[in-house]
């Protein structure tokens, strides 16, 4: 017997007990190929290829060389969701032309999703355009695709929103960038305040490159066709000079004079932009709050509890972008 554990898509771990041969503890070397593409190699390890992903956890069973038994074991397999077959390229070609995916995107297409020659995928360039293309040639880290169609697809929220946010620590900032992009935030502007725990000004290029990769992955996953803009970090006073002059400007701050989110929503015109300001873990200093008020920001309360930076940011985005 060979006991192996496999982690399914939802993170659950199931035990798969493999009987090599008919009761004999000898290596199981047979490879069973099952349409539409499940491959079961030897020694009890299961892999998924050709656009098929296991969504149901494995049932305990005996793996044998018989295709009928293998099909029964993998009866929970379904096709990969279409939004997972979406890839990013800097510049899209017109319909009828060819383009080349390289490096990370090519690796993802060929070795992670396992797209085969002749299969179709979607391509986006972050400007609102979406192309349907067919894989016609593949190399080690290069994929050539033929563009079948090109269209303009708008998936943006009706309301434009800019978030000015003090940076939390690295891993939490990654979460903030990812979730705000999924929710449809137009622009994220990191800022440095008096009580900031992270100062990004020293390594701007590294931070921006990392956040852009996260934005691209979030856009691909969520079906967004435009990339969220992440600006270089600015000092607090410079960040408050946001370009949206007609926007409703809010600053997250507890206090007796703070508005509730419902009161803020009542002041909004149908398509009026929103600029939201979220401070660091230690909160704004009195001088920074005075500067925010002079810049036209209305204090808004997010409840009786103290929220982390990323929680407050995601809550504000959810309220104004999903409630339209």
Please, could you describe this protein's structure?
The chain has 324 residues and is α/β, with parallel strands linked by helices. The protein folds into three domains: 2-79, no CATH class; 82-152, Beta Barrel (Ribosomal Protein L25, Chain P), CATH 2.40.240.20; 161-322, 3-Layer(aba) Sandwich (Alpha/beta knot). The chain is 26% helix and 28% strand. It contains eight helices and 19 strands. Strands 13, 14, 15, 16, 17, 18 and 19 form a seven-stranded parallel sheet that branches. The longest helix has 19 residues, at 204-222. The protein is elongated, with a radius of gyration of 25 Å.
Brief characterization of the structure:
This protein is α/β, with parallel strands linked by helices. Helices cover 26% and strands 28% of the residues.
Sum up the structure in keywords.
single chain; 324 residues; alpha/beta; Ribosomal Protein L25, Chain P; Alpha/beta knot; seven-stranded parallel β-sheet; five-stranded mixed β-sheet; disordered N terminus
Radius of gyration using CA atoms only:
25 Å
Total number of beta strands: 19
Task: Output mean pLDDT.
Answer: 77
In CATH terms, what is the architecture of the largest domain?
Answer: 3-Layer(aba) Sandwich
How far is the first residue's CA from the last residue's CA?
57 Å
Helix-residue proportion: 25-40%
Assigned CATH superfamily of the largest domain: SPOUT methyltransferase, trefoil knot domain
Structural class: alpha/beta
Q: Summarize the helix and strand pattern as letters.
A: EEEEEEHEEEHEEEEHEHEEHEHEHEH
Give a short account of the largest sheet: 7 strands, parallel
- Helices, by number, come to 8
